[in-house]
């Protein structure tokens, strides 16, 4: 369908316009990695410490940087010098921005493939077919390709999430088509490019084990342990091990495995990022803060102890709690796993729903890691939102949750862009996202809502609450001159407000996922 | 509801594009001593804020007219003064007399870009939306297409938000004036056009059709009623003019001073490499060397007037709104091609007229607008806007061609196929020239090779478009009948579909 190409081309052109935008330090991070992979031998990739932005992505990503650097030297060889810190000539900026745009083709390709393969064809209505507000497959394409979060994070803030998400979606498409080995291959490659996807690895493990290794002949028939196929497990293992071998092999050979791993998993960072991601810990922190303030007011706590606690918090960027127990990394791991467990068990017991059930579980695991993980970035919300996008055409409930979560999740990315020129861009793009997603989904799910379409009235109220919140953050806070004495208040408000929404969406999504299976078994 | 959302989406997209272009460099950024249009606009804020009205257009010790002297009509000056007040409130350094010359900073750029956005928000965007919403005979699809063309036209976005100017104001006022005339609001339309003319004298390109259209309407209305109408409109125009010029009407001399600033006949025939007829002709014959300055002016004047005649007389004879829109294109294009002292940015004036015809001439308007943006390429490259130029133009071309497909495929005959083939060849040519001008270094004896090639290529197109639009205006009635038939059938089919939907 030509319309999908038009959407892809228009989005790509828009990305070109964002080239001169603000760039975060991630730009320098990736420039440094270009330089490291280009000018140093492999043995020094994970040991070099010239820049503070050491290579902390897995080896396949480093190889991607290596290949990009081969082209980079034709743009500006200066950017490939390791000692040339914070180098940003026009050619460098152009080159790096273009690499993001070009590698994004992978994402566009994957999104198109998903729309072609996995979106059920509607009843062949000619009049509907070309309207981007009505055709389901086109709506999916627009919502995926013009994803607000990816535009903001990749093309302004600067990262390579597009290509990674593209590989991720490709592996999901393979699951939809029951091409399990290919899916495993793509996912292993993905894991070796960015290890944050480890969070969703259990889903792949459970699903491949259940649908590929058991019941090799009859899909969806009753589960029995005896149907286990060792041969298939070996196939799977070989694929995964080959990819990991190619990626980590050289470093194991050079005896650097522990060095590489220590770069990949730096547990020395704090529980929360500088700006709290809108997750469970943001609420936990604020509850602790509130309790300590109330405690000192009521003279239950001595103010000296409170001050000491917050002092240490400022120094090591670690938030030590005063009233509630302080959190250790292992707690977060346990909580995350606990939150994932019901979803994984549910997936194991209900594999008959195929790709759809698989994506549901991906979303739930994404939620669990985002809500309870250690040192979570606000950007990680994309690992929930993008798989959730794939579900919007399945059920009204999914569409509703997508509208709710994408609005709140994208809004929570606002603090990522704090420069003046980008303020109108982020506001306008969010408005655009809301206008389009609400109107197009209301065409699919007819709604008689009195406020925003598709979502319920209390969800509408909550979402509309963003408007006064943003007005306070950008104007009133400055007018009241609180930005000097209490500079962190807007960020705090944003993350607390959004975390309530994310938590709500998680619980709601969990209950619909678990309920749907019981309902189905009852009717069938 | 659905239509409203789609209009909003288009407007919001156009704002997103506009703002993302404004992050780019502006004309003359960090290029002392003269800088560029950005500095000119800032300098006017400084002048109008700090000097008395009587000195704005006069060379005084405090107002060096050689350094970006004010040469736009009074409304621009008032607008500058308002912006100047706001600038002074935010940071007095931005508009301090003399000391602020060449002032550049992140926040100043932000402020200047915001002034353009605010102006568009107040004038151009509402004008464009009203223009297309007011045409109730249009079906939703062609209305949205027209709106898309006028809102996403890359040339205007690049010049206003990249190069830096306030064309959106005068063009928006003109669009609004046309919308008013289309809705039988003659007096408001005339007043709005007078305002446009008083913001930028380039709007004179549009003056002839406005005049003949209103005059023709009065003729049609009958002797008494017509005369009465004419007097009403005449008084409206005169009062608007008097209001705009009141501070300068204290003496004949001060009014004359402004006028000589607005129409500097002592400048050259053309500046840089413009896609005007004279500039392209100079590749073959150097008229500048043959004729004196006065004769050149005369030659331009007579050619322009002669070429204005056919479309104007036709409009006078048949003053319909469609003929009026065609005449706007024809008149402004004649001015662009044949008049004296043409700037490459002046192509925006014919271009905005074509934008108003987008629903009638889908493919031709896309074609014209793409070529018009292309004709400004050397200027855009100088301003460092090549990447936004590529991004916006490709997006405009692909999106508009895709959306306009159902309109173009209505009558698949050999003529329209030929047109499509020509369109593709012409676009490929423009793309190749763009690529060549960026990557091929011209031979040293021909340093201006690519600017000349680009302007000649565009000029050839414009001459062809001039013929086409004249043909369409004068012989378009017969085609019109066909269109009406096909439109009524379309309406019927859409009604049928709606009723089917209801049944479902």
From TrEMBL, chain A:
Chief site of localization: endoplasmic reticulum
Residue ranges of the TM segments: 132-153, 160-178, 184-209, 230-253, 330-350, 357-374, 380-395, 402-421, 427-445, 457-476, 488-507
Signal peptide per UniProt: none
The EC number(s) this enzyme carries: 2.4.1.-
Topology with respect to the bilayer: Multi-pass membrane protein
UniProt KW keywords: Endoplasmic reticulum, Glycosyltransferase, Membrane, Transferase, Transmembrane, Transmembrane helix
Pathway(s) annotated for this protein in UniProt: Protein modification; protein glycosylation
Organism: Patella caerulea
PANTHER family: DOLICHYL GLYCOSYLTRANSFERASE, DOLICHYL PYROPHOSPHATE GLC1MAN9GLCNAC2 ALPHA-1,3-GLUCOSYLTRANSFERASE-RELATED
Protein family membership: Belongs to the ALG6/ALG8 glucosyltransferase family.
Subcellular location as annotated: Endoplasmic reticulum membrane
Pfam families (UniProt xref): Alg6_Alg8
Highest taxon, organism lineage: Eukaryota
GO CC term, one of those recorded: endoplasmic reticulum membrane
Protein name: Alpha-1,3-glucosyltransferase
Gene Ontology annotations of biological process type: protein N-linked glycosylation
Top-rank EC class of the record's enzyme: transferase
Keyword Membrane: yes
GO molecular function list: dolichyl pyrophosphate Glc1Man9GlcNAc2 alpha-1,3-glucosyltransferase activity
TrEMBL record, chain B:
Pfam families reported for this sequence: Alg6_Alg8
Region forming the signal peptide: 1-22
Annotated membrane topology: Multi-pass membrane protein
Main location: endoplasmic reticulum
Record EC number: 2.4.1.-
KW Cell membrane (keyword) present: no
Record localization: Endoplasmic reticulum membrane
Keywords recorded for this protein, A-Z: Endoplasmic reticulum, Glycosyltransferase, Membrane, Signal, Transferase, Transmembrane, Transmembrane helix
Domain of life: Eukaryota
Family, per entry: Belongs to the ALG6/ALG8 glucosyltransferase family.
The protein, known as: Alpha-1,3-glucosyltransferase
Species annotation: Patella caerulea
Lineage: Eukaryota, Metazoa, Spiralia, Lophotrochozoa, Mollusca
């Amino acid at each position: 369908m030509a319309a999908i190409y038009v959407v892809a081309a228009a989005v790509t052109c828009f990305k070109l316009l964002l080239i001169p935008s603000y760039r975060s330090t991630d730009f320098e991070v990736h420039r440094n990695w270009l330089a490291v992979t280009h000018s140093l031998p492999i043995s020094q990739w994970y040991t070099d410490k010239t820049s503070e932005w050491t290579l902390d992505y897995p080896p396949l990503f480093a190889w991607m940087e290596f290949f990009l650097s081969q082209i980079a030297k034709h743009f500006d060889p200066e950017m490939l010098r390791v000692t040339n810190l914070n180098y940003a000539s026009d050619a460098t900026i152009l080159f790096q921005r273009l690499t993001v745009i070009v590698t994004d083709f992978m994402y566009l390709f994957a999104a198109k493939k998903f729309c072609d393969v996995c979106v059920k064809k509607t009843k062949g209505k000619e009049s509907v077919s070309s309207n981007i507000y009505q055709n389901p497959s086109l709506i999916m394409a627009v919502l995926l390709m013009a994803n607000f979060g990816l535009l903001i994070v990749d093309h302004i803030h600067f990262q390579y999430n597009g290509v990674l998400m593209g590989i991720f979606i490709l592996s999901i498409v393979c699951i939809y088509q029951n091409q399990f080995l290919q899916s495993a291959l793509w996912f292993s490659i993905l894991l070796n490019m960015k290890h944050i996807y480890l969070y969703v690895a259990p889903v792949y493990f459970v699903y491949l084990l259940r649908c590929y290794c058991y019941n090799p002949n009859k899909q969806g028939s009753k589960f029995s342990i005896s149907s286990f196929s060792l041969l298939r497990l070996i196939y799977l293992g070989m694929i995964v091990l080959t990819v990991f071998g190619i990626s980590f092999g050289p470093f194991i050979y050079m005896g650097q495995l522990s060095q590489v791993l220590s770069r990949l998993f730096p547990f020395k960072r704090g529980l929360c990022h500088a700006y709290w991601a809108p997750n469970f810990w943001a609420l936990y922190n604020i509850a602790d803060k509130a309790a300590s303030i109330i405690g000192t007011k009521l003279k239950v706590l001595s103010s000296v102890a409170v001050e000491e606690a917050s002092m240490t918090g400022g120094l090591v960027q670690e938030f030590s709690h005063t009233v509630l127990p302080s959190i250790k990394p292992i707690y977060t791991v346990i909580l995350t796993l606990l939150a994932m467990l019901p979803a994984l068990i549910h997936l194991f017991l209900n594999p008959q729903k195929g790709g759809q059930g698989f994506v549901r579980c991906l979303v739930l695991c994404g939620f669990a890691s985002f809500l309870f993980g250690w040192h979570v970035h606000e950007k990680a919300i994309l690992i929930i939102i993008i798989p959730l996008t794939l579900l919007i055409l399945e059920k009204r409930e999914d569409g509703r949750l997508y509208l709710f979560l994408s609005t709140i999740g994208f809004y929570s990315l606002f603090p990522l862009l704090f420069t003046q020129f980008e303020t109108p861009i982020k506001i306008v793009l969010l408005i655009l996202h809301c206008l389009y997603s609400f109107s197009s989904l209301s065409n699919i799910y007819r709604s008689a809502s009195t406020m925003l379409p598709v979502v319920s009235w209390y969800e509408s109220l909550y979402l509309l609450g963003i408007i006064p919140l943003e007005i306070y953050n950008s104007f009133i806070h400055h007018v009241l001159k609180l930005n000097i004495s209490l500079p962190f208040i807007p960020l705090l408000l944003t993350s607390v407000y959004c975390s309530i929404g994310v938590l709500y969406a998680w619980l709601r999504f969990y209950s619909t996922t678990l309920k749907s299976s019981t309902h189905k078994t009852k009717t069938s | 509801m659905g239509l409203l959302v789609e209009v909003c989406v288009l407007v919001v997209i156009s704002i997103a594009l506009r703002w993302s272009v404004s992050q780019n460099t502006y004309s003359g950024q960090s290029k002392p001593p003269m800088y560029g249009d950005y500095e000119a606009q800032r300098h006017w804020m400084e002048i109008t804020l700090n000097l008395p009205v009587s000195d704005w257009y006069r060379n005084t010790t405090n107002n060096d007219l050689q350094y970006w002297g004010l040469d736009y009509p009074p409304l621009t000056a008032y607008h500058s003064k308002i912006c100047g007040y706001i600038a002074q409130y935010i940071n007095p350094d931005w508009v301090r007399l003399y000391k602020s010359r060449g002032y550049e900073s992140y926040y100043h750029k932000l402020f200047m870009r915001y002034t353009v956005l605010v102006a568009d928000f107040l004038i151009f965007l509402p004008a464009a939306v009203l223009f297309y919403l007011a045409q109730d005979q249009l079906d939703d699809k062609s209305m949205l297409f027209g709106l898309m063309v006028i809102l996403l036209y890359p040339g205007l976005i690049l010049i206003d938000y990249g190069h830096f100017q306030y064309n959106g104001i005068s063009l928006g006022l003109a669009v609004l004036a046309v919308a008013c005339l289309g809705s039988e609001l003659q007096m408001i339309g005339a007043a709005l056009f007078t305002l446009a003319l008083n913001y930028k004298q380039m709007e004179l390109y549009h003056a002839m059709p406005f005049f003949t259209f209103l005059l023709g309407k009065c003729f049609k209305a009958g002797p008494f009623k017509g005369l009465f109408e004419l007097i009403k409109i005449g008084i409206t125009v005169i009062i608007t003019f008097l209001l705009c010029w009141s501070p300068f009407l204290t003496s004949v001399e001060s009014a004359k001073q402004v006028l000589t600033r607005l129409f500097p006949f002592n400048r050259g025939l053309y500046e840089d490499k413009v896609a005007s007829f004279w500039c392209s002709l100079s590749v073959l014959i150097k008229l500048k060397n043959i004729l004196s300055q006065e004769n050149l002016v005369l030659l331009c004047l007579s050619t322009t007037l002669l070429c204005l005649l056919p479309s104007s007389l036709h409009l006078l004879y048949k003053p319909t709104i469609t003929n009026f829109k065609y005449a706007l294109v024809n008149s402004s294009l004649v001015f662009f091609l044949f008049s004296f002292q043409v700037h490459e940015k002046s192509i925006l004036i014919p271009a905005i007229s074509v934008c108003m015809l987008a629903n009638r001439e889908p493919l031709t308007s896309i074609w014209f607008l793409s070529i018009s943006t292309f004709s400004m390429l050397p200027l855009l490259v100088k301003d460092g806007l090549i990447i936004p130029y590529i991004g916006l133009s490709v997006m405009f071309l692909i999106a508009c061609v895709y959306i306009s497909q159902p309109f173009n495929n209505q009558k698949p005959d050999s003529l329209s196929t030929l047109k499509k083939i020509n369109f593709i060849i012409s676009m490929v040519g423009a793309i190749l020239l763009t690529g060549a001008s960026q990557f091929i270094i011209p031979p040293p004896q021909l340093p201006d090779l690519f600017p000349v090639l680009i302007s000649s290529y565009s000029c050839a197109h414009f001459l062809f478009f001039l013929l086409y639009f004249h043909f369409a205006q004068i012989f378009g009635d017969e085609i019109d009948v066909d269109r009406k038939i096909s439109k009524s059938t379309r309406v019927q089919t859409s009604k049928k579909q709606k009723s089917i939907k209801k049944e479902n």
